[in-house]
Automatic annotation (TrEMBL):
Gene3D superfamilies: Glycosidases. Pfam families: Glyco_hydro_1 (PF00232). One of its GO terms (biological process) is carbohydrate catabolic process. Signal peptide: none annotated. It comes from the Bacteria. It comes from Streptococcus sanguinis SK115. Belongs to the glycosyl hydrolase 1 family. This is 6-phospho-beta-glucosidase. SUPFAM superfamilies: (Trans)glycosidases (SSF51445). GO terms for cellular component: cytosol. Its EC number is 3.2.1.86.
Length: 340
């Protein structure tokens, strides 16, 4: 698709996607209830090739072509929602976005505006999914960047009539915005860098750790849409060390336990705030190659896989300390999070 069609820059992908979703919806219509149309759909803005299959080199990709590709994805998502509800009216179909709350670097109004503009780039996707139309705030951005979205006949109606049943998202970090970012120290996040937040710690890959940010995201989405929410990715990538333990090889990953515990406690706070939450799933249950860096050494799982970046290793699997910890969290429906 990337080589022959240039990914979602080509409108032909909508019809290919339609065939795919019809096949999957029909096959699993009596087995699966909750569906997501695209994974982290807004990440196409940061990684056009990885997220959207757009083979045009990033330095040559115009904003016009990038946002036209976004439009194609949004139309395809609405079409999938329509088809799914026709095949099984009991389906619950949601969008999935990469959530990153943005804080202004200072109380300067210009910095507050910079944070707002950053968040609007991400809200664009959930706004269209939930409200069925392009938001007014994007018109100025399009005008100032020479972007004119080409609508095919029926696009507007398709978007308007096929909004999602819930909002799902991944959450790993927050960001800081300023109108003059060159005056501040930058982070080294591998997917999305930016200004360092002096009040937050960072992972080994430069992603700043912000549990309270998850509560903010939950409240912001729920206040904005009054739709059920679903956290479908959240976790810590780290360089785990396999060592001998009393019951065999393991990883003493207390840092992962602390990360997840703090984030889940903030989920509890959001529930007390009144947020309607369908569920929470971590990224991920087992070590695998990290898509953002193509490394296996960036490990997320509760299960250690003996495999190295160079392909060596036995593929043997070992429970980390976090495995039994998270098992207890599930068994107690979160009550163990508040026990010493």
């Amino acid at each position: 698709m990337a080589r022959q069609y240039n990914g979602w820059a080509n409108r032909d992908l909508i019809s290919f996607y339609e065939r795919y979703v019809r096949t999957v919806f029909t096959r699993y219509k009596d087995k699966v209830k909750y569906w997501l149309t695209f994974n982290e759909i807004n990440s196409v803005l940061h990684a056009p090739f990885m997220s959207g299959g757009i083979a045009t080199p990033a330095e040559e990709l115009s904003k016009q072509d990038l946002y036209q590709a976004v439009h194609h994805e949004l139309v395809a998502s609405a079409l999938a929602t329509k088809i799914g509800h026709e095949i099984n009216p009991d389906f619950k179909i949601g969008c999935m976005v990469l959530a990153m709350p943005a804080y202004p670097m200072t109380p300067k109004p210009e910095d507050v505006l910079a944070a707002r503009e950053f968040e609007n780039q991400n809200y664009l996707f959930s706004d269209i999914h939930a409200r069925g139309k392009y938001p007014a705030y994007i018109n100025r951005f399009f005008k100032e960047n020479g972007i004119e979205i080409q609508f095919a006949p029926g696009d507007k109606e398709l978007l308007a009539e096929n909004t999602v049943d819930f909002i799902s998202f991944s959450y790993y970090m927050s960001v800081v915005a300023a109108h003059d970012p060159e005056n501040y120290s930058s982070g080294r996040g591998n997917l999305l860098g930016g200004i360092m937040n002096p009040h937050l710690a960072s992972s080994e890959w430069g992603w700043q750790i912000d549990p309270v940010g998850l509560r903010l995201v939950l409240n912001s989405f729920y206040d904005r849409y009054q739709l059920p929410l679903f956290i479908v990715e959240n976790g810590l990538g780290a360089k785990d060390i396999l060592a001998d333990g009393p019951n065999g090889p393991t990883v003493e990953d207390d840092y992962r336990i602390d990360y997840l515990k703090q984030h889940l406690q903030q989920v509890g706070e959001a529930l007390e705030d009144g947020v309607e939450l369908l569920g929470y799933t971590t990224w991920g249950c087992i070590d695998l190659v990290s898509a953002s860096t193509a490394e296996l050494s960036k490990r997320y799982g509760f299960i250690y896989v003996d495999r190295n970046d160079d392909g060596t290793g036995s593929l043997a699997r070992y429970k980390k300390k976090s495995f039994d910890w998270y098992k207890e969290v599930i068994a107690t429906n979160g009550n163990s999070l508040y026990q010493d």
